[in-house]
Amino acid sequence: MPRAVLPALAAALLGLAGCAGDRTGSVIVPAAVTVPPEAPRTTTARERGSDADHAKLVAAFGGEYRAPATLRLLTEVTDKLVKAGERPDQTYAVTLLDSPVVNAFALPNGRLYATRGLVALAADTSEMAAVLAHEIAHVTLAHANARTELELRAQLVSKVVADVLNDPATGMQLQSQSRFALAKFSREQEFEADAAGVKTLARAGYDPFGAARFLTALNRTSALKSGGGQAEPDMLATHPATGERIALVTRAARLIGAPGLGADDRARYLAAVDGIAYGDNPAEGAVRGRRFIHPGLGIAFEVPDAFSIENTRNAVLGTTNEGSRRLLFDQVEAKDGQELGDVLKATWNDAIETNSVETRPIGGHPAAVALSRGKDWTFRLAAIRVGDATFRMIMAAKGAVDPDPAFRRWTASLSAVTPEEARSLRPLRIEVVTAESAAADELARRMAVPDKALERFLVLNGLERGASLKIGERYKIVSE
Fold it and tell me: Around Cβ 43, how many Cβ atoms within 10 Å?
């Protein structure tokens, strides 16, 4: 969570279980970029745009992550995929982003981006190659240009009907229809890129089943974050459900041949990712167990038992395993002299109960608390002024149950970060270790994660529950 964040509304809190922030796919960014001099190129590429545009894009994902061995591997894999693809003349450059989210995307000019969170999740070279092949397919198939043309055509038709023909109602209806058409078009593009990516993967000599394995790991990671719940399908989602994509790439791989035909190059991949950062950048706040610490903001808190929390770009989000209670911590804008009770009303979508606003200090800071009851959830809210900044702490309970007791324990834990605590806060890292036993739980006990250590160990290494380790083999763990 950076210093400045956007207000997060009730919908964000209720939508925690179905957050799509970790979906891998193509994010179309309308900006021309350039390859920085220090980044390796697959070939001597032509000038790709302005340094300023590239810098803005990289900054949006935490900056460029410096890991020479990892970047070298990604670049070599990209070279191999391009030579085996439909456009061996196309030039590409890879940038590794300092973000814990699992994401990858491509620009039409051949710029490929992957986050360190995605690199940490992939279990071998063929899985990473599957992601890069998918993004290369988006460029080769000119998906960004096709989508832009469709959007412009839909906008033009709607405007002509509304303005020229003086029929605003029909214009609005056409706009609504175009949204569904664009969503369907985007999902079809994802399927097309998946299918093309698997073919390129196989032609380059990699295991074509790597795509299915990576998407399965992505699905399992999302389930861990949502407490095991599954999100309701979104008709306007630009990406198909991950399960649909897994089925498609599995079928595509089977058409090529049986498992084991291509190389997974696992040993080399593990060597390349050994030591990369995992999870939050402590400078933007970090989760340690049930405690959130932000040295830059100078604040920390601890969530009640049964909650697991995640530090996202705009907020700290938390949920219980069954999803019946959720919480949110974020920073909001407040006008000079604005009462904190008014801040709550101005930044909350639902109605706040009359006479529920109460002014009381939290952690020695001025604060206002209130109660809000929605159709299916009951909320406790607080706005707290710490120096010049204003923060919200929100807890939701499903149904009519007031979450006030747990809410009070949570808000009472708000405190200043001590200098010693700030100095001791170091980034977690991927460490590659050798299994000395077949028992997965032995290595899982070494995982420096807040919860579900065994499940996270299995996902990081592409293992199913109940799997036995191979003595002498190398596996990824998370360490301090």
Answer: 13
Judge whether residue 85 has pLDDT over 90: no
Which amino acid appears at position 39 of this protein? A
pLDDT band at 273, cuts 50/70/90? Answer: very high
Q: What are phi and psi of 224, to 5 degrees?
A: -60, -40
pLDDT of residue 19: 30
Question: Average pLDDT of 270-296?
Answer: 91
pLDDT for residue 304 is more than 80: yes
Please answer whether residues 244 and 32 qualify as being in contact, where contact means their C-beta atoms are separated by less than 8 angstroms. Answer: no
